[in-house]
Amino acid sequence: MARPRVLVLGGGFGGLHAARRLRNEDVDVTVLERGTSHVFQPLLYQCATGLVSEGSIASPLRHLLRKQKNVYVALGEATSVTAVGDGGVVTASRFDGSTFELPYDYLVVAVGMQQAYHGHDEYVQWAPGMKTLDDALAIRRKLISAFEMAESLPTAEERRPWLTFAVAGGGPTGVELAGQIRELATRALAKEFDSIHPSEARVLLFHGGDRVLESFPDSLTKKAQRTLDTVGVETHLGVHVTDVTATDVEVTAKAEPKTVTRYDTHTVLWTAGVEAVPFVKKLADAMGVEQDRSGRIAVEPDLSIPGHRNVFVVGDIMSLNKLAGVAEVAMQGGKAAGAAIASDVSGSARSDFKYRDLGTAAYIARGHALVQAGPLKMSGFLGWVSWGVIHIAFLAGNRNRVGTLINWAATLATGTRRERAITYGDPATARKPYN
User: Fold this and answer.
1) CA-based nearest residue to 2, from 345, 367, 376, 257
2) Has the keyword Membrane been applied to this entry (predicted)?
3) Per the omega criterion (within 30 degrees of 0), is the bond before 4 cis?
């Protein structure tokens, strides 16, 4: 009798942990990922601001799963799915545009979210998000190039837009990114330029809510706001970004009279919301289920799709008990989906998914971070140390853990950031003259 075929879509936290949970089970696992690596998304902003390299936060999936004999790793992107009897078929595309099919008996969907521009996808050309390595390297290019441009301009008026950085979204990613830009300017670059003073860089943080980091208790967000004020981030609450161009950003107040303000800047960074990747809609249509406003799919207590016990949705794209789209939810969800499949194979009953809340954390600035774990709340230096321990523990692979620790230690000791090389995206673009 053929072994059950388990197809895992996505090599992020959910997909990786689902595959690992099935290590010793009598199944054949295929992991389909559109990139070659598992990326530790919580530290993408540090890659973007030159604190760590992309290699420190990305581990090849083939390397991570090399000792798991029942796993096959495939490079490709799922484009459609068809349910057939007790299983189904996923069609995927390769780099060159050709397609191939992957049959399954069990399907674990962990394809994640993408940055949401709320009906204005044209903003992406001027305001990159923070979901992929490409995003991080694009942001690094914009940040470093902005300081270099300002250095070459003769007047303060010409330099000002290049030294103004706007961040849309006051959640953890936006706050962390804004704080890191100020640290980059005031510490790493402060003594490296002649014509400009990088510490004069203006960082604007726009957020629609009445406080930043709304997922944290009010007592902690007040401390975070004080830290942002201290490091020089200008926080604008109760506003939405309503236009982005190559040379400025427009924000509109939510309250009457809905004042509109434009800021001259060449660097706008977008962290204001996420949405499901397009494949999730195709999955929902194929399975006959609905999506919520962000594209998430509601799941049963065992993380399967209603009416399809062999199809599981985990991570950011699952909707269950208002769980947040954070790494720990994805990791535990992936393990739970793998455990449910293992139960079916062994003939035992499935268990409902029970999320164990290990807390949330956000980096604000050097020596300042927030950590909440149940009733425990930490901020300041203790929160900062705890934040570091948590993130090192969750990194994939000992080499990445050691490399990141060394980078952090070197930055603390010297105040410099060595990971500031910029790329132009592809050789053809790199060969082109600037104008």
Assistant:
1) 345
2) no
3) no
Cα 172 to Cα 259: distance, rounded to the nearest angstrom: 26
Residue 12 phi, psi dihedral angles, 5° rounding: -80, -155
Please calculate the CA angle 356-362-368 and round it to the nearest 5 degrees: 130
In whole angstroms, give the CA distance from residue 248 to residue 267.
8
Could you tell me the two tokens for 249?
Answer: 């950003």
φ/ψ (deg, to 5) at 275:
-145, 160
Choice among 33, 77, 176, 300 that is catalytic: 176
pLDDT score for 422: 86
DSSP reduced 3-state for 296: coil
**CB 216, CB 225: distance < 8 Å:** no
Residue 133: is its pLDDT beyond 90? yes
Q: Is 328 helix (H, G, I), strand (E, B) or coil?
A: helix
Q: Among 55-69, 288-302, 395-409, which stretch is predicted with the lowest mean pLDDT? A: 395-409
Among the listed residues 113, 111, 108, the one whose alpha carbon sits nearest the alpha carbon of residue 19: 108
> What does the block give as tokens for 206?
């726009």
Band the pLDDT of 79: cuts 50, 70, 90.
very high
Q: SS3 of 62, please?
A: helix
- Pick the most confident of 22-31, 321-330, 424-433: 22-31
Mean predicted confidence (pLDDT) in 246-265: 96
At residue 214 the predicted structure's pLDDT band, cuts being 50, 70 and 90, is very high
**The pair of three-digit structure tokens given for residue 220, joined into one six-digit string:** 């902690």
Partners of 165 in beta bridges:
203, 267
| Helix/strand/coil for 416 | coil
For residues 148-170, average pLDDT: 95
Is residue 143 within 8 Å of 188, Cβ to Cβ?
no
Q: What is the 3-state secondary structure (H, E, C) of 293-341?
A: CCCCEECCCCCEECCEEEEEECHHHEECCCCCCCHHHHHHHHHHHHHHH
The radius of gyration of the chain's CA atoms, rounded to the nearest angstrom, is: 23
**Could you count the other beta carbons within 10 Å of the beta carbon of residue 74?**
14
Cα distance between residue 41 and residue 43, in whole Å: 5
Which residue, among 193, 199, 186, has the nearest Cα to 415 in the 3D structure? 186
Helix axis angle, 13-21 to 327-346, nearest 10°: 30
Whether 256 sits among the annotated catalytic residues: the reply is no
Distance, in Å, from the CA atom of 287 to the CA atom of 308, rounded to the nearest integer, reads 7
**Burial zone of 248 (CB within 10 Å; 0-12 exposed, 13-18 middle, 19+ buried):** middle
